[in-house]
Amino acid sequence: MAGNEILGFVGGALTSLSLVPQAWRLFRLKSAREISLPFSSLLLAGIACWLVYGISMGLMPVIVWNAVSLVLSFTMLIAKLKYGR
Amino acid sequence: MAGNEILGFVGGALTSLSLVPQAWRLFRLKSAREISLPFSSLLLAGIACWLVYGISMGLMPVIVWNAVSLVLSFTMLIAKLKYGR
After folding, report:
1. Average pLDDT in the B40-58 region?
2. For chain B, what percentages of helix, strand and coil (3-state, to nearest 5) are there?
3. The domain spanning residue A11 has which CATH number?
C-alpha cells in the first residue's frame, strides 16, 4: 500500500471510529439534546454521497470508511430522534 | 466538472457544513456534556489526515472540504473543552 493510501486509511479510521464513542455516549446518557438534528441528518446524507463518490472513483479508503461511517452516523441519528427532545 | 467530482463536492459540502449547526448549538446552549471528547479529538486528527491524503492525491473535493472541516471541528473541540464538564 502506498504512503498516501495508508494516510487515507488512517484518516478514515479516525473520522469513522470517532463516531463510536459519540454514539455510545448518547445511548449511555440517554440524552441527545445538545446534538443538532441538521448535523446528524446532513452528516448521514453527506456520507452516502462520499460512499458513491468513492465507489465511482475506485478509492478503497473512501469506500471502506464511509460504509462504516454510514452505519455509525445512522446510529447517532437514531439516538437523536430517540433522546433528542 | 465530472459527475463523480460533483458528488464529491456535494458529499463534502454536506459532511463539512453539518458541523456548522452542531458547533453553533453547543455555543448557544453553552453546554457540551453530551459531546464525547474522543469524538471531537479523533475527528480533528482524522480530518487532518484526510487533508494531507487529498493534497497528495490531488483530489480537489477532498482538499477543499477537509480544510473547511478542520476549522469547524477545531471550533467544536474548543466548545467541548470550554463547556464540556
Report:
1. 94
2. 85, 0, 15
3. 1.20.1280.290
